[in-house]
């Protein structure tokens, strides 16, 4: 051992002496020397030199005079005989501090000898069979442990710390180095470190020593072994070599994160970080070298990460560790340290080869609290390495990370013996671990992963992240590769397939070859169809970002190219006399054509009508359609593009110009790209209707919608499914009218054959002023508003679902804007809403529910009684399914009103609660559950304002929870209790004090006797809420606060 050279163990004579010394006698001598602490928290009290001098004299007197201390006197003499520096220091009366330190170290060495002798003795048998074994003979009691810790602190504080130069292991509060010669300081430092290293070899003494004083011990060993000669005068080279060996021995033995942290402290930081002297250059270099050695050890990277994060973010696993994981700056600092190659390493590749597997191991930490911190560090390190040295990072990080996926890709070279049917190439555990690791570091995902992962939540998240964060061209290319339209990504090996694992995961195995050609063709077509459907499902989550719309347009462009290629192939004649290469190329083109057609068809069926998110995408879609039409027309095949498709595409433009969206100047700049194509269609298409529509659209785009013909309006109405309202002319032309035009421009609009012209002319004729201008136009505007409101009321009964829903939402908007015309007929509007609530289409009845709730929240005094009466009255005296559904919809209206009223709902407390209680007695089980759910939310919002109705509510809940035959109703009753306790929180015991016992018994009954698992879960949640409320009252949190009292 390295420490043996510093302080070899005592011989056999001392061991015999140690056998005769009682363990308690040595501890008593330590307490006599240091003085007994005044209280339980006085272990770290400072020692006075005068008291130490007196204690040393008292100890010497007792060792000489009392017979019971003779054995300890002999053992101490043997110890000091082997350590002459300590013996000389113990007799030096000129330096009381050093003399006390030598005395303490001598007694600690005696204690170490006695503990070694006790541990070598045979263990006593157990007192009785089955009883716990007795403690080891060298076990210290709690009081003895405190005395040993005080002795170690005194030994380090008096014998080691004062002889360290400034900047070497200094701590705040430690004494300054004494003004003694360099040779004396070096000899004393060596004597103290030798004794402490020998003490550290014993586990009982080494644990508290290394846990509390490792930094100072390392500082002393660094100074003795590597420090400048001026601080080591009088030491031979052999002694310095022994110190270096002891340093390595201590670093190898101690807990590695602790060693890393202490080395970082010794190394120090910038001068502004600490008020102490900065570490000297030689010590900083030495600590850097030692830290690099810690890093290059097995599992050294984890030790370095733990040491750094423990030193900066608190203990791992606590709240400080979570805060450190959130602080990306600390993770960046650790990543830069780990990504930098130390000077001791032979080459950068050797360093990456050694460290990268340990970085990947950080992703597999099982502890949930520490895993977040380690994964963040690993991800940041991986990114840093990938940016600085991408080739080495790909070789040593990315490829090992993706090894299970790359092993089964079409680019992998699989041995012949591994291609036998049923051979598992990637096990379930390997595949799951790979996917989880990639999900953790999804920032560095690359293309080969995309077509290899089956549908699962982590894979989907990774794919969506990649598609959203990549450049749009890259995302489109990857999506093409996923369905086989491009070779931008690797696919699964043709002889491999995914299989369900025994634990619910996925494994990759070699599939059995199929001899039947029809079966093989069917499997191939089914696999391609599965790829297309999976891709469409993935795109359904990318509509908001616009990726789905861009890919749909990209497929339409590919369809245009396919049509052009077919035309070129047809012009070349038959392929009968072609070579084999040409036949393969022709087959590949045909396969691509079928894939494009299949993909476009699936996208048209599956992607919703909200696939386009901006005007530019609509313009590109229309441009692709027009371009296909122009290509077909130029080749004399006018029927290639159906007239209906072309009309639909131009109808989209007409709808945008007709007010479906609010167009800006930048939007018209985008639409102007269609002008050349529209002009070509208007000149070459054989259908006169399409010619006229294209020409009119071109004029409308050029005039920014100021000029709109009947053809454009008709096309817009066919797309929107409804007529453009009377305000369309004003909305379309107002931005382009002159302020002084007055009423002349609307007459110009009538000349353009606008659909609203006859209605407006009729209104003006009724008022007797067909061409009124100036102030006389006000009655016309008022009548126009009334006509628009009347049209909305009529549209609310339109058989077309979109028209009816749009009218209901427009009425709701008028109520929100407090339109005076709408407020005058609020009863009629309420009747419209209530009748539409009974509609079977969700688009209609949800719009009606929203409108009724909005109207009721604006005028609760007038509307809420009507809703309560409708909710409580059965339809025609019967209780059929349709009536129950309607009442549930009215319950949703009432709950929206409750949320909108907020604290004002207390005014309507009784009628609302009674209505829901009556609903809880309905024969329909679904309505009973709905009424209880509404009751629970209402009670949660009322909180302290429940009042005396709590008795009625509790009685109803207990009766239903115990006697109702339907499980969903009992479940809803228990859920009401949960909501009630959550709403009251800590005040539940005050508000529910009269019924709290009954509710508690109800919950216990449900937990014990309820067969429905969901109801039991709700009851357990309610009991937890109740337990939390009661504990907060019985054990209130202690708040420490300062109070300043001014005395008179």
Please give a structural write-up.
By secondary structure, the chain is mostly helical. The chain is 67% helix and 1% strand. The protein contains 49 helices and 3 strands. Strands 1-3-2 form a 3-stranded antiparallel β-sheet. The protein is extended and about 125 Å long. The chain starts with a helix and ends in a 14-residue tail after the last helix. This is Transport and golgi organization 6 homolog. Belongs to the Tango6 family. Residues 768-781 have a biased composition (Low complexity). Residues 124-143, 723-781 are annotated as: Disordered.
| Shape verdict | extended
Helix amount, in percent?
55-70%
User: What is the first-to-last residue Cα distance?
Assistant: 72 Å
Structural class: mainly alpha
Rg measurement, Å: 43 Å
Question: How many helix segments?
Answer: 49
Mean pLDDT: 76
Count every beta strand, where a strand is a DSSP E run of 2 or more residues: 3
The fraction of residues in strands falls at: under 5%
Q: Quick one: biggest sheet?
A: 3 strands, antiparallel
- Give the strand order of the largest sheet, numbering strands 1, 2, ... along the chain: 1-3-2
Uncertain parts: 1-19, 313-319, 443-456, 726-780, 875-879
Condensed summary:
The chain has 1048 residues and is mostly helical.
């Amino acid at each position: 051992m390295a420490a043996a050279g510093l302080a070899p163990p005592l011989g056999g004579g001392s061991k015999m002496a140690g056998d005769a010394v009682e363990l308690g006698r040595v501890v008593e001598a330590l307490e006599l020397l240091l003085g007994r602490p005044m209280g339980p928290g006085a272990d770290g009290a400072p020692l006075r030199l005068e008291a130490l001098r007196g204690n040393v004299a008292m100890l010497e007197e007792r060792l000489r005079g009392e017979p019971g201390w003779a054995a300890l006197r002999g053992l101490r003499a043997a110890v000091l005989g082997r350590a002459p520096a300590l013996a000389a220091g113990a007799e030096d009366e000129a330096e009381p501090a050093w003399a006390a330190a030598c005395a303490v170290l001598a007694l600690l060495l005696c204690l170490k000898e006695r503990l070694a002798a006790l541990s070598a003795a045979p263990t006593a048998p157990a007192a009785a069979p089955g009883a716990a074994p007795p403690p080891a003979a060298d076990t210290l009691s709690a009081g003895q442990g405190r005395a040993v810790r005080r002795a170690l602190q005194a030994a380090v504080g008096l014998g080691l710390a004062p002889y360290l130069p400034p900047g070497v292991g200094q701590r705040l509060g430690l004494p300054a180095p004494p003004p003694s010669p360099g040779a004396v300081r070096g000899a004393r430092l060596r004597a103290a470190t030798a004794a402490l290293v020998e003490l550290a070899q014993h586990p009982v003494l080494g644990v508290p020593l290394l846990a509390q004083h490792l930094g100072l011990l390392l500082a002393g060993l660094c100074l003795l072994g590597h420090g400048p000669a001026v601080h080591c005068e009088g030491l031979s080279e052999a002694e310095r070599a022994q110190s270096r060996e002891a340093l390595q021995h201590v670093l190898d033995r101690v807990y590695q994160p602790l060693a890393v942290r202490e080395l970082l402290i010794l190394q120090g930081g910038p001068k502004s970080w600490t008020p102490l002297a900065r570490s000297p250059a030689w010590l900083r270099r030495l600590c850097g070298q030692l830290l690099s050695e810690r890093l290059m050890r097995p599992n050294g990277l984890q030790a370095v990460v733990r040491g750094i994060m423990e030193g900066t973010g608190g203990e791992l696993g606590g709240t400080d560790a979570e805060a450190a994981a959130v602080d990306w700056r600390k993770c960046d600092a650790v990543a830069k340290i780990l990504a930098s190659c130390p000077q001791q390493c032979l080459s950068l590749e050797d360093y990456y080869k050694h460290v990268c597997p340990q970085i990947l191991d950080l992703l597999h930490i099982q502890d949930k609290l520490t895993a977040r911190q380690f994964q963040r560090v690993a991800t940041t390190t991986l990114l840093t390495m990938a940016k600085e040295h991408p080739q080495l990072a790909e070789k040593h990080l990315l490829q090992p990370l993706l090894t299970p996926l790359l092993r089964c890709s079409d680019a992998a070279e699989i041995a012949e013996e591994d291609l036998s049917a049923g051979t598992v190439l990637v096990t379930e555990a390997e595949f799951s671990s790979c996917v989880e690791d990639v999900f953790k570091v999804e920032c560095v995902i690359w293309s080969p992963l995309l077509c290899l992962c089956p549908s699962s939540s982590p894979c989907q998240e990774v794919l969506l992240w990649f598609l959203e964060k990549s450049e749009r061209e890259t995302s489109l290319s990857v999506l093409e590769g996923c369905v086989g339209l491009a070779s931008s990504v690797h696919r699964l090996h043709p002889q491999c397939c995914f299989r369900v694992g025994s634990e619910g995961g996925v494994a990759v195995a070699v599939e059995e070859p199929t001899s039947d050609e029809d079966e093989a063709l069917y499997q191939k077509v089914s696999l391609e169809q599965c790829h297309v459907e999976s891709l469409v499902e993935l795109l359904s989550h990318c509509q908001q970002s616009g990726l789905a719309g861009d890919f749909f347009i990209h497929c339409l462009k590919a369809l245009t190219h396919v049509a052009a290629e077919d035309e070129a192939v047809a012009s070349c004649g038959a392929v009968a006399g072609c070579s084999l290469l040409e036949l393969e190329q022709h087959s590949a083109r045909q396969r691509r054509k079928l894939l494009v057609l299949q993909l476009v068809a699936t996208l048209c069926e599956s992607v919703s009508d909200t696939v386009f998110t901006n005007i530019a995408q609509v313009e590109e879609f229309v441009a692709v359609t027009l371009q296909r039409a122009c290509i077909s027309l130029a080749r004399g095949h006018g029927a290639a593009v159906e007239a209906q498709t072309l009309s639909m595409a131009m109808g989209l433009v007409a709808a945008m110009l007709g007010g479906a969206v609010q167009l800006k100047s930048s939007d018209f700049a985008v639409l102007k790209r269609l002008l050349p194509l529209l002009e070509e269609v208007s000149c070459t298409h054989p259908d006169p209707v399409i010619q006229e529509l294209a020409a009119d659209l071109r004029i409308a785009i050029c005039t920014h919608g100021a000029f709109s013909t009947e053809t454009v309006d008709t096309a817009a109405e066919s797309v929107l499914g409804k007529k453009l309202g009377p305000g369309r002319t004003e909305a379309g032309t107002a931005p382009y009218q002159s302020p002084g035009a007055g009423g002349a421009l609307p007459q110009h609009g009538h000349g353009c054959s606008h659909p609203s012209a006859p209605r407006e002319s009729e209104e003006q004729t009724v008022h007797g002023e067909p061409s009124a201008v100036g102030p006389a136009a006000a009655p016309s505007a008022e009548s126009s508003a009334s006509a628009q409101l009347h049209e909305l009321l009529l549209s609310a009964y339109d058989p077309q679902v979109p028209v009816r829903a749009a009218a209901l939402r427009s009425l709701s908007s008028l109520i929100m804007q407090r339109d005076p015309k709408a407020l005058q007929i609020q009863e009629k509007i309420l009747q419209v809403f209530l009748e539409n609530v009974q509609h079977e289409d969700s688009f209609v009845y949800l719009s009606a529910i929203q409108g009724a709730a909005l109207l009721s929240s604006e005028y609760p005094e007038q509307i809420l009684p009507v809703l309560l009466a409708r909710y409580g009255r059965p339809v025609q005296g019967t209780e059929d399914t349709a009536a129950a559904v309607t009442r549930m919809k009215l319950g949703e209206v009432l709950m929206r009103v409750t949320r909108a009223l907020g604290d004002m709902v207390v005014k309507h407390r009784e009628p609302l609660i009674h209505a829901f209680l009556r609903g809880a007695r309905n024969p329909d089980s679904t309505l009973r559950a709905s009424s209880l759910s509404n009751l629970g939310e209402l009670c949660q919002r009322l909180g302290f304002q429940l009042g005396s109705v709590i008795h009625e509510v509790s009685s109803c809940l207990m009766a239903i929870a115990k006697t109702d035959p339907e499980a969903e109703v009992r479940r809803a009753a228990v859920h009401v209790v949960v909501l009630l306790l959550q709403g009251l929180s800590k005040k539940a015991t005050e508000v529910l004090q009269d019924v709290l016992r009954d509710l508690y018994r109800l919950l216990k009954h449900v937990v014990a006797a309820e067969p429905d698992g969901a109801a039991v879960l709700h009851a357990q949640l309610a009991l937890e809420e109740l337990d939390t409320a009661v504990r907060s009252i019985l054990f209130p949190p202690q708040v420490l606060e300062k109070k300043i009292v001014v005395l008179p």
